[in-house]
Amino acid sequence: xxxxxxxxxxxxxxxxxxxxxxxxxxxxxxxxxxxxxxxxxxxxxxxxxxxxxxxxxxxxxxxxxxxxxxxxxxxxxxxxxxxxxxxxxxxxxxxxxxxxxxxxxxxxxxxxxxxxxxxxxxxxxxxxxxxxxxxxxxxxxxxxxxxxxxxxxxxxxxxxxxxxxxxxxxxxxxxxxxxxxxxxxxxxxxxxxxxxxxxxxxxxxxxxxxxxxxxxxxxxxxxxxxxxxx
Amino acid sequence: xxxxxxxxxxxxxxxxxxxxxxxxxxxxxxxxxxxxxxxxxxxxxxxxxxxxxxxxxxxxxxxxxxxxxxxxxxxxxxxxxxxxxxxxxxxxxxxxxxxxxxxxxxxxxxxxxxxxxxxxxxxxxxxxxxxxxxxxxxxxxxxxxxxxxxxxxxxxxxxxxxxxxxxxxxxxxxxxxxxxxxxxxxxxxxxxxxxxxxxxxxxxxxxxxxxxxxxxxxxxxxxxxxxxxxxxxxxxxxxxxxx
Lengths: 230, 243
What we know:
Largest interface: A-B, 36 and 41 residues
Shape of chain B: globular
Strand content of chain A: under 5%
Radius of gyration of chain A: 21 Å
Structural class of chain B: mainly alpha
Low-confidence stretches of chain A: none
Helix content of chain B: over 70%
Distance between the termini of chain A: 53 Å
Strand content of chain B: under 5%
Oligomer: heterodimer
Largest sheet of chain B: none
């Protein structure tokens, strides 16, 4: 069954696959996770704030993003980002946005909704006495969030946040729909150029599998270590 | 913003000659629902089997369950669809591969099975957690009553475990619906695909995507409402969510 396959095509395209493709995927994953975490935390704070309206807006945003398929959101932002750029810079025409920027904006906005739910659960898991003690010490709201609540929430939720980042790592493969050469896109380009779909897709699957397996094993180890502390 | 809005576009005839652009989107919506339902049935059947395997005391059974879940959880859905669609027919014996490639509606069947198996791993994890959350006495009582393991699962453990995991299953069902859009990459023209096609034919990007967005939101509302009713009608008085 493997007799007419040519696995040498993988070796020949390794530099392209990893230096171009995988570095794009990892960069996109890392920056989106960071951006998503920052915005997600802000959204979580909005949801938990005592201003009803802020909470409403944040809740609507999260529900809205979470009910749409990522593929549709990718298309939305791909066409929307040039107009947003025009609006922000006050240019007379929609600005040209590169593939990386466009997908980065997409993933940050999309993941913010998911990270915000995790951070909200993390903040709510901190006992009421902590912010109460902080305000008794005279810390302001932002000081108590910054020095007391958020560091603990972040620490408690670290395994969940990392698991979500693994999901994000897998989801970045969907930029394929914009023909962007991330890892899967690069593999697919080589596959179609050389007519080697079977070899390239099997290899891509194996690489994703290996990375995700190792990463989730690491998260399980981390979880076990964190669990002892409490 | 110099974009020409044209909301009447939905009632203009589409280039395929069969009806309006709205008809195009509605046919995409129906295909999304059809694919998602079939995928969900597959996910429930396989997820239940694997979930039970994971909860059995047998080491082999739980290892099989673990391997299954890891296999489907550690690859992007898109890659899995590519494996089913492009790779599997090549690796099968010639005749079988040819049959698969010539199957009418191949993208539909691939999408339903691919998304279904992908989701089955998630259902299995939920179900195994649901069974694990039951008090040990349930299983012991079933054994004490003389039920076999199979009967114990059928009449005691599963009915309660499924009720416990109904809320997470709702969100997994919603994920199934959303995940069918990934099949756009293997040529399934479901709702997102039709919105994209409409954008390419008519250049009315934002109208097309707005309509698709509204339709996805509508599906969500229907599913969430339906599942809430189901939860209420299945609730056992005095237990979990029952009143």
